[in-house]
Amino acid sequence: MEQKQPSMKRRSDINNYHGRHIYMVTLATEGRRPWLAQVSGSSEQPVVMPTRLGLAVKACWEEIARRHPEVKLLAFQLMPDHLHGILFVQSEMQMHLGQVISGFKAGCNKAFRQLQAEAAPPPTHSQGAGGEGKGKPEGEDEGKTREEKEGENERKTQRGSAYEAAPPLPLPSQCRLKKDDKRHGLLFERGYNDLIAKDFDMLPRLIAYVKDNPRRLLVRREHPDYFRVRFGLTIAGQTYAAIGNRFLLYRPEKLQVQLSRRLTDEEIAHHVARFTEAAHNGAVLVSPAISKGEQAVMRQALNDGLPLIFLTPWGFNTFSKPGHQYFEACAEGRLLMLAPWEHQNERVDLSRAMCMALNEMSRQICDEKTPPK
User: Fold this and answer.
1) Which of 18, 48, 205, 357: CA 20 to 30 A from 290?
2) pTM score, whole prediction
3) Residue 87: which of 103, 78, 100, 99 has the closest Cα?
């Protein structure tokens, strides 16, 4: 049997994608090319300027609700190389959600081709022997019929001023792919990522995440070293992928947080106070946060703005980013996330052996005196 490859685009095995659900959908441009929008300004006041292609993509997204009355569109955010959209399937659909997204992508591809054609340079005209052009002049409107001119003016009117002011689409020659290359799409990568909301209480968090994307991008630009995924970081003979402030490993005091699952709430509260006091005094707390007590300590330290090294069993890929609860800590340089194992799309329950291995790695990190490689 062929082994599954790690993927961010694999569908849920327990959802048929026809019924009533809220989905957050993410699509990335082919090759992660920044074709959809420009993000500028500051993290306090981000500015998103869609390209002409981005405006066309937004129009195609809005078309989903008109073509599929069962679907309500709740949020949408263009980014340079991807988009996020939240949609609510309000009633059972005959069509699979994947077919809805495929139709959306087909509309985007059509707009993409049209913009490519419009951006193509005009044909040159033959020159006479004396160097004077004998063909039709190369003026923008010369040689067009009245119907063609009127049709072009009508299209410009429909687009509106936002289209005319939008940045044009960059058209690198390498964007043209072989028709038989099934590994790639045209405008977007093949497939898409979806996150299914467990309940309506999750919806405000999803909407906030989508709308916060431009600010998060600018924060990452302001602190690129903290958000870049680094592979091959070796500590005490163990190799990790890392996101965050690696210089926390150089701090003189690192304190392992390892607590029994059998602790009472009162005992946990005691350890939370003990460890956070040590962190306030300069210690860096290190833990995979497995047990209830370890999670309470790390959560309190995170809320208090204290330095943390967190070991995660879920590996990173090139595009991995810290989750919502870790993002600000990462931006402020007070968090380092270490992943000793390769990225896996499907999460499994931690085994006892995995827990023991993570705790042993935490101990080694705290004991290690040699700078990491």
Assistant:
1) 205
2) 0.71
3) 100
CB 301 within 8 A of CB 277: no
Q: Residue 43: helix, strand or coil by DSSP?
A: coil
Rounded-to-10 torsion of CA 243, 249, 251, 254: 100
CB atoms within 10 A of CB 28: 21
Contacts of 328 (CB under 8 A, 6+ apart): none
| Region of 150 on the Ramachandran plot (φ > 0 left; ψ -120 to 50 alpha; else beta) | alpha
Q: Are the C-beta atoms of residues 194 and 11 closer than 8 Å to each other?
A: yes
Q: What is the dihedral of CA 100, 104, 107, 112, to 10 degrees?
A: -150
C-alpha–C-alpha distance, residues 303 and 170, integer Å: 43
Pairing of strands 335-339, 308-311: parallel
Whole-number Å distance between alpha carbons of 304 and 104: 44
Q: Which residue from 300, 327, 301, 323 is spatially nearest to 312, judged by alpha carbons? A: 323
| pLDDT tens-digit readout, 38-84 | 999 998 999 999 999 999 999 999 999 999 999 999 999 999 999 99
160-198 pLDDT per residue, tens: 555 566 666 555 444 454 444 556 788 999 989 898 888
Q: For residue 195, is it left (φ>0), alpha (ψ between -120 and 50) or beta? A: beta
Residues 149 and 157 sit within 8 Å (Cβ to Cβ): no
Distances (CA, A) of 340 to 3, 160, 219, 238: 21, 52, 26, 7
Contacts of 203 (CB under 8 A, 6+ apart): 22, 74, 86, 197
Cβ(358)–Cβ(311) under 8 Å?
yes
Helix (H) or strand (E) holding 336: strand 335-339
- 289 within 8 A of 298, measured Cβ to Cβ: yes
